[in-house]
Amino acid sequence: xxxxxxxxxxxxxxxxxxxxxxxxxxxxxxxxxxxxDLLFQDLNCGDLCDAIESVTEGVNGRDFxxxxxxxxxxxxxxxxxxxxxxxxxxxLESFYARSGDSNEVKNIVVARLKPEYRNLIDLxxxxxxxKVGKPYDDVYALGNETWYCSExxxxxxxxxxxxxxxxxxxxxxxxxxxxDAFFPAWVEYFNELGEEIPEGExxxxxxxxxxxxxxxxx
Length: 218
Fold this sequence. Notes:
The chain is of the alpha+beta class. It has a single domain (31-217), classed as endopeptidase domain like (from Nostoc punctiforme) (endopeptidase fold (from Nostoc punctiforme)). It has helices spanning 6-25, 47-55, 92-98, 121-130, 149-160, 184-193, 206-210, and strands at 38-41, 66-73, 76-83, 86-91, 108-113, 170-171, 202-203, 215-217. It has a six-stranded antiparallel sheet with strand order 4-3-2-1-5-8, sandwiched between helices. The chain has a two-stranded antiparallel ribbon with strand order 6-7. The model is unreliable at 1-28 (pLDDT under 50).
């Protein structure tokens, strides 16, 4: 190979620098999804989402206000989730769009069960799909045949593992961190329902599930 002239070398350096810079500036893309993956999402839905995210930090310091399961239906990947009026099947595209994502990573984190637990995926998915059409759990109470997002994930894997707790349940709090005051958004929310705030009752949220040692973050 002939030695490069200084001007040629300089031009080559500029070109390589531009290529590396362009590659680094490309948005991070979602990994290829598989049946059984869990999606953790920052919905940016206002005061209630902010309150959920404030009380439990997600994996790697991320904030999550929603979670869902990826399932294969007729060889097409869909999302089964408890949101809005109840448990429903959504397209991946509508799931991404809800938080301002396409297939680029902005507000979504993907988790996959570690290999030793993947035998539970089919049973967990069957359980979740059996709840499609059931109403949303507005009062965040376990065991009342209504479902909130992380409860659906929790109960799906509890059922798949023979009713052994798979993800960890802890006492819920609706209070502002380092305070005895409830978030105003929760006070208004439960007042409208005519229900007491279930402070201290057992439950889960997306952040706590995302930190489970049984998951790999992709």
